[in-house]
């Protein structure tokens, strides 16, 4: 969909002198049209970029139902950018990171994104969170030609069609690919299992189910869906128990991992649990469950023992991983206190990839150049993610694969190597790439 | 002079004249604003339309609805459904009218049920409605579930651009187009509502609000008047929802939380119950205040999360302060002060 | 069959929580003729206070008592400091005042206590009870919830039916002028009504939170369904609140387990509309609508 501006009008004259006077008076009184209407230079659009700074915008749920957990992601990004800025910035430019709250409400996302793009004049958006929320602004960002990098959501919408949304790039492994990788692992390793699905009632659950059914359609005996923020999930888990599912795959958020574990304990229901990457977070869920042991859950921390999951990033509990060590050091020097969490790690990893793209783009930073860099070089970027990003001219999807892991004693242990795949009928292959190590100072080198 | 005064005394004439003047002023103001301010003006327009409708319902007929967000959802989804393809089946104005009609019908059904109930029971039922409608569209197929429906705003019609250009000398871009639409709709709605409030129907409503038993003895059919007020307010909410879909560009369940209904109610309260000017003022506050407060919070050194939470704190406090200190609302209190001064002089 | 019983028991405990919340609304309605929309955020705040105490002392019961006491104080403070000034004015003013308080408390709690999930311990086992080799889908805490609601119900009925105080409270709410003439200290009664209601509200908060997660929005679904339960039963009747809560809890549990979780809100609306169309004053409205 293209919109044409009709320049012909500029040569016409408005109706009367009185009208002109009024326009003048009102323009003086109100805030006149500002720099937003300026024409980009021939070399490309440098909105938001000066010799000393780059303005980057982000929208996250800082308030409301989605805020617990997600509101800490931008703290991670902020810490990383502060660290980069303390070390001289990128080509001498400091990153000015502006976070706005959208309360996970598309209406608010729309208004704060307007504010970021039209008023604050950001160079790019980074890590804007949520499927329905970002859906509200993706057309606006693309028609305004604002780079929309690393959307914080695993929907395939963010990158499967670069022709439709040439300025939008995904980041994490999409839910469909994750479903496929989990499905294949189950088909290979637990072919007799009666699989029950515990799904969040939205695109997250639906894409996951689609991917799973590519491999274990016949093994699925029950599907239960919950609405986040709704009533108690006892009836959902009871339905899975009634169908005698002995392996439950959960496409749910971390709070519902804790809640489903508590319900299962109440029902004396002990299937093998397999939570997706989004829902597992052993540090968060484990600490939530461990706190109950002060009450009467005797084995709170061990509740998660033996739970399967997937990972596209190292877990913060894996302190021997060099990326975790590097990010932990940065968090200690520039973070906002407390131990590094997986949410903050997520934000830092996005920020790292963004700085990587800025470094690779070079000194002459424009919006067009940044997108060109990601399409041409983004596929070769190495970082904390296990598998490469799928960035190219044909796909803007994020990292392409994950490991199957198991939680043991609060630690995440690898079960498989890195499995990579893509949406649609792409096969799953074991990645041969060796794990990368971070640069010594934690900042991707300039080219 | 007396002739002019007499004509001015006819509410319809007065409202139409004010409407035309307002239209011209609005055209000039919008054309002089930046795209960001235009987007905010669009938000203010749909909030004001919904608040205007709620003013009639709550301020005039004394019924409390905690679920008007549901009717915005009805209007928004109708518009989104008709605008999900690049080639809309109907002209935009017709789509907006269809949205009003659908909200009107749904409002009629709910209104008939609500008219039988007293205060807290209406509140309970409408609160349940505010939660039920978003959940229902999530459940039904064809409405895009959680992601909602994408709204493709039709291109600005050439004749529209021409007219605006002729008057103001400024081009119409897609963002300001929605703002123009919103404010034109707002002016039309407010003229209609203002006339209604001045009419016999309006007086009936006030009588009902102040003393329903006496009103009934005086021969007013309680039920019919209540339903009419309800339907009028839901029609306004439907129009507001339609404009909301156009300005947000998506209609998704998460866009219609219970907070939305409470927000609308607070817009009515902030300005003053029963006054359309108050509704306008209240929606202006709701549009511009959160951003100002949040920015003030971050510049005062609060964390992002804290400054984001600050906006609701401030508007909740203002809401309480208005009720405690100036129950007639800002507009009502100013009017009283003005009348007192004139009385003294 | 097992699924049926599990869903039934789940619905009962869920319903008991709604009933507790509805009882708080009913209490305040009986003693002041006001619907307190800030009930849930007030309970949320007191639950957080309780959690702070539990976390620092390690004693659940101390936290429990402190939370209830905090409710008593908060209720009285809100009545004395805010509601007092709009009493006798239009009903709408009080409603809007409590809605304003709703918004403020919600955000203040997020600022003061943070946005994170916190786990709220329970004093009893969170495992299903074992009876004769069978696992019952109800925890020790679930049983506690049911008993707590029953006790509150009995106390409330006793208060209004058998004590002088209850009579005075009702009289103050129903007709302040007459009550004043009869020597009732109306102001004190209203304060007491708010304070007691807030205690019951705090209890509801503790029952929702126990053995589950606490965050500033954790009472949100109770706001709607607890209110619906109260209205369903007829705001004026404690028995109605309990029945309304249990009916709603069971219905929502079965719809959620056997149909779809997205149909839960529309079911609540459907039940409410159906009941109100037959009995506009709720299930247990025995008094005909008051006429002037």
Structural features, described:
The complex is a heterotrimer of chains A (447), B (345) and C (292). Chain A has 15 helices and twelve strands. Chain A has 447 residues and is of the alpha/beta class. In chain A, the strands form three sheets. In chain A, strands 2-1-3-4 form a four-stranded parallel β-sheet, sandwiched between helices. In chain A, strands 6-5-7-8 form a four-stranded parallel β-sheet, sandwiched between helices. A four-stranded antiparallel β-sheet of chain A has the order 9-10-11-12, with helices on one face. Chain A is globular, with a radius of gyration of 24 Å. By secondary structure, chain B is mainly alpha-helical. In chain B, 79% of the residues lie in helices and 1% in strands. A two-stranded antiparallel ribbon of chain B has the order 1-2. In chain B, helix 3 packs across helix 12, helix 4 crosses helix 11 and helix 5 packs antiparallel against helix 11 (222-248). Chain B is globular, with a radius of gyration of 20 Å. Chain C is mainly alpha-helical and 292 residues long. The relative contact order of chain C is 0.20. Classes of the chains: A alpha/beta (447), B mainly alpha (345), C mainly alpha (292). At the A-B interface, helix 1, strand 2, helix 4, helix 5 and helix 6 of A face helix 2, helix 3, helix 7, helix 11 and helix 14 of B.
Q: What's the β-strand tally of chain C?
A: 4
Helix content of chain C: over 70%
Structural class of chain C: mainly alpha
Q: Return residue spans of chain C where pLDDT drops below 50 for at least 5 consecutive residues.
A: 288-292
Question: What is the assembly state of the chains in this entry?
Answer: heterotrimer
Largest interface: A-B, 59 and 53 residues
Q: What's the number of helices of chain C?
A: 11
Helix and strand run of chain C: HHHHEEEHHHHEHHH
| Principal-axis shape of chain C | globular
Mean pLDDT of chain C equals 88
